[in-house]
Amino acid sequence: MFAPLSIPSPEWSYFDLGPFRIHAYALCILAGIVAATIMTSMRLTKRGAEPGIVLDIILWAVPLGIIGARIYHVLTHPGDYFYPGADLLRTLYIWEGGNAIFGALLGGAVGAFIGCRMTGIRFWTFADALAPGMLLAQAMGRLGNWFNHELYGLPTTLPWGLEISSDNPAFPVGLPEGTLFHPTFLYEILWNVLGVAVILFLERKITLRWGKAFAVYLIWYGVGRSFFEAIRVDPSEMFLGVRTNIWAAWVAIAVGVVIFIVQSRRHTGVEISPYVPGREWSAADADIESDNADFDNDEDGNGAADVQKSAAAATSTSGQLP
Length: 322
Description:
The protein is mainly alpha-helical. The chain has two domains: 14-266, no CATH class; 283-316, no CATH class. It is built from nine helices and seven strands; from the N terminus they run ββααααβββααββααα. The chain has helices at residues 24-46, 54-76, 101-119, 123-147, 184-205, 212-230, 244-266, 283-296, 303-316, and strands at 14-17, 20-23, 155-156, 162-163, 180-181, 238-239, 242-243. A three-stranded antiparallel β-sheet has the order 3-5-4, with no helix packed on it. A two-stranded antiparallel ribbon has the order 1-2. A two-stranded antiparallel sheet has the order 6-7. It holds the Pfam family LGT. It is found in: Cell membrane. The chain crosses the membrane at residues 20-41, 53-72, 92-116, 123-141, 185-202, 214-233, 245-262.
């Protein structure tokens, strides 16, 4: 018998829509990606980037991030996938759970770097714009672990303990049915949402540009993850008696500290443009392109005059910062 205020695990993790099986885990991840994309796009546009340019970057970052997340998970849980008679195709079944955020960071960083090089956006500008959106996406993605009945913590007597059926493959041997567990998915959701607020607050108080907002993200997430990982009961590879994901969290903290210190020393001025030199974009450029399109379709014969007026307006404002 579970406690009155305990958190029940969902009775379903997927539903069928015609011939398709829709997994809640996948929906949570997709919802997080959409939310992060919208938030990042708004922040980049506010800093002077072309509206919608974030889509050109995430077309690289998201696929490589998902691939990196899966590869990292499989490599850090080899016993789940590589054993006599194992179906190696299961290494591709991301809907069963198992997408490591640290792998997503590595793969996504490579994809973002490629996307930024192609669009002319500064990599660190994109990383800063993404920082709170990443935490928001991770918070939403953690709901998928709840639907999958996975990645819960140690047994607890707290009233908000998570209900896990004793027939769950990861249910600790020897514990009685009705045992409650720490809802680490919920802890991480709350921590990540709080992190979004912290980054947005700090940006109002101090200058978090040139990668420093992303550094705060790494430090914040690394601190929280190192604790949540320590109370989880699911099996994981160990190194020197410490779970590999805790080592990864410590690395994230260290990298965040290094980025913050180095970038604070290297860049003491204002970030003038989100673009690398020579790749700048401005609204005036878009107006001229729009006018050129109008000129091509002009029917009243005044297209050339309209384009000349737009060019003159753009020239008069070219010396202003975006």
